[in-house]
Backbone:
């Protein structure tokens, strides 16, 4: 996807997070942070010219929907937006900042299945850990956006 | 998870979904997917198709054999969840116009999934009494 579209999605996910209570609405608050953070990683990878900023949207690793005359169709494609950090893995070397973003997202992702699909007890500490990792990821994206403008 | 745990989780996600503005299309589609998956799992446990320790995560991650087996248990429920999941590449991970209509469609499908899953639960509980 294009960087501008990733940024628009981040805005909408952050608006959702602001409408939700992190503890009471944990599942959707968490899911918004996770997908928003993934958009940030994808935008950073585009800015670093590691993955292409284009109209191609992943449905699973290696399969992307691309525009055609009838709308969109799935095609096989190796490089593009990641669905989650590690899906698919980025084989090219990445900067330390992007590595830190990916590491922050891995911290968030660790809570995905236990907390949204399983019955792990949600706590203020889990919220705090996710919020901290999310803030770090976004701060690093802002840094890269600024660097890209200069 | 047990059917009751899935039901509780699905209803909790739906309560959160109700707090979201219509233009927040990505998370509304994701919410429909997450809650719909819990309803499908509750229904599959009630139908005896899956044990509580065996949950579906996404229909597209099932093997073809498993997809067919669960569709034999309840084809409509599996198909409706798959329909929500199919909205994700273009409207959650893509920027294709029509996101709000897609989110409305996902929420309508979720309502139908909930209704069918609740009906199955009522039938299953009646059989136990």
Residues:
């Amino acid at each position: 996807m294009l960087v501008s579209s990733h940024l628009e999605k981040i805005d909408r996910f952050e608006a959702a997070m602001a409408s939700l209570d992190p503890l009471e609405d944990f599942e959707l608050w968490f899911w918004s942070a996770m997908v928003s953070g993934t958009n940030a990683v994808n935008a950073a990878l585009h800015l670093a010219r590691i993955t292409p900023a284009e109209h191609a949207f992943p449905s699973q690793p290696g399969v992307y929907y691309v525009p055609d005359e009838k709308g969109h169709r799935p095609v096989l494609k190796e490089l593009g937006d990641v669905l989650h950090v590690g899906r698919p893995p980025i084989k090219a070397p990445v900067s330390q900042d992007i590595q830190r973003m990916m590491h922050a997202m891995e911290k968030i992702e660790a809570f995905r299945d236990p907390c949204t699909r399983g019955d792990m007890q949600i706590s203020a500490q889990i919220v705090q850990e996710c919020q901290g990792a999310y803030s770090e990821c976004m701060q690093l994206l802002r840094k890269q956006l600024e660097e890209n403008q200069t | 998870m047990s059917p009751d745990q899935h039901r509780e989780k699905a209803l909790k996600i739906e309560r959160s979904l109700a707090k979201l503005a219509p233009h927040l299309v990505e998370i509304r589609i994701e919410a429909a997917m997450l809650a719909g998956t819990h309803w499908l799992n509750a229904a599959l446990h009630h139908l005896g198709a899956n044990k509580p320790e065996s949950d579906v995560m996404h229909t597209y991650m099932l093997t073809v054999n498993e997809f067919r087996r669960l569709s034999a248990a309840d084809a409509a429920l599996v198909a409706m969840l798959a329909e929500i999941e199919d909205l994700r590449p273009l409207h959650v991970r893509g920027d294709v116009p029509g996101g709000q209509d897609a989110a409305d469609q996902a929420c309508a499908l979720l309502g139908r999934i909930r209704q069918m899953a609740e009906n199955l639960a009522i039938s299953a509980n009646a059989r136990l009494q």
Chain A has a mean pLDDT of 96. Residues 124-149 of chain A form the longest helix (26 residues).
